[in-house]
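Re: the pair you flagged

First of the two:
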Amino acid sequence: MHQLIYTSEAAPGLASEELFRIIEQSARNNPNADITGFLIYRGGQFLQLVEGPLMALETLIETLRRDPRHHSLNILSTSRVEHRSFPRWRMKRVGEDRDALAELESALRAEGRAPALPPQIGTFLKLRAVA
């Protein structure tokens, strides 16, 4: 099992309906690839944490690199993990308000895990704080 975190920039003029399509499409496709995770969209940028088999994550990244709805994909980390952090989230949108960090930590506690998130997530949220 692996965990991958990346950021990317939304294409200019990305409509909110398109953001919902991204989430719907991911939630529909991810179970077949055994991928779980979440997506944060703030200030024209995405941060996504995905977990699953390494080959499935590599295939996902190649697909994402070709997606015209975003660009400048930057992989922040790839690591091997024993257990999924968010096993019930086929793909969840997080971070519509300033309580995104609390939402993620609460989900970790619900899974019986310490609410320790990768530091890249906190940094992303701080840099793109909701007013």
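Second of the two:
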Amino acid sequence: MYPDFQSRSADLFARAQDFLPGGNTRHTVHFEPYPVYAARGRGAWVTDVDGNDYLDYVNNYSSLIHGHSHPKVVGALVQQASELVAVGLPTASEIALAELLVERLPAVEQIRFANSGTEAVMFAIRAARAYTGRPKIAKVEGAYHGAYDAAEASMDPTPANWGDATRPQSVGHARATPAGLLDDVVVIPFNNVEATRRLLDAHADELAGVLFDALVSRMGFLQATPEYLQLLRQWTHEHGALLIQDEVFSFRLGYHGAQGHYGLDPDLTALGKIIGGGLPIGAVGGKREFMQVFDHRSGHAAVPHGGTFNANPLAMVAGRVTMELMTHAAYAHINALGDRLRDGLNRLFAAHGWAASARGVGSMVGVMLGGETLGNYRDYRGFLPAVAQSVPRMLPLHRALLARGVMFIPYGGLITSTAMTEADIDLTLAKFDDAFKAIPMNAERFATA
């Protein structure tokens, strides 16, 4: 039962700290007192190095939309690996995946592949700058768009540095982020139409693009309001800036992604996660007019874009098979599972007297410790102490569920996969119910009273 300091996972973490700073190569896999080390995965389940099985709601931070080791994806990978792992030439596999994505995304006519969602956002920003000739971008306060300086601006500001709510400061995420980079990011308050309009107007001649996510992962999958989305589209049209939609997470929302779900028409779209079938991938796509900045055939491209592993054939075939399996019925299945999980968790929170809620859309569920209505990042972070320290407060629940064989994202995210069933959801709810009974009802931390 987790935690067990005599376990192989605990031993591996002790060893890792000697060779890897912090004991890992991505801090998102760490949780206290030590992370569980995986050995293998099948379907909805992952097994750790000590032989413990966990129903996996992390799904590698949503990239495993079919769970672990889907036979058709594995079969495609085995066949491709036997023929070609990597090569300094193009392959037909990149055309096949590009065709599929263009068919599904209403606003995308051409695609460039990369190796992560971070790269996809980075090249989308560069494309907007190259097309418009302008230096600045606007992005939403508190939104996560990957590990790129401009995209990280004001990802997690605090009351000590975030400034006025209607004119947020541009705050670096990494220490010593150059002030010059931050000056080129206009931070806009999520879902505040009038304040955002004023900020965009004030920088209209400098803005290359507006970067947004209609479903903000780091705010419990908080949705943008229709009025806010309408403002961003209308304003960018009127002022010659490009609208950049981050669909790295939200493409799993439906067959045509979040842009199909919400009826959006972005100029550029950033993709990642599910389109690679579990392998590293990213992509930036958009209208042909805007994607021409990557075309080098007439000389030096406006946005040079190389990359040793771009369009790697393994990722291409895994992504194509994964997406072919994502039929309308498959999307309906994972979204229905998400609804069932949300509804069940909210009933349990009420029954146990917890000031908490399960939110989100479709297959993306966000557990929030606090009952307040949220509209933006400051709402999310502001109802202290409930969310200002959301990860430390979530740890007792996260740990209790690990001990009961359920694994979710430590800050409260649960992502469903096609490998899951209604029985898995019901089992999960039973495990949550048991965990609630085991966690002391400390009123200042969890109770509604």
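Residues 8-65+328-438 form a domain with the Aspartate Aminotransferase, domain 1 fold (CATH 3.90.1150.10).

-B.
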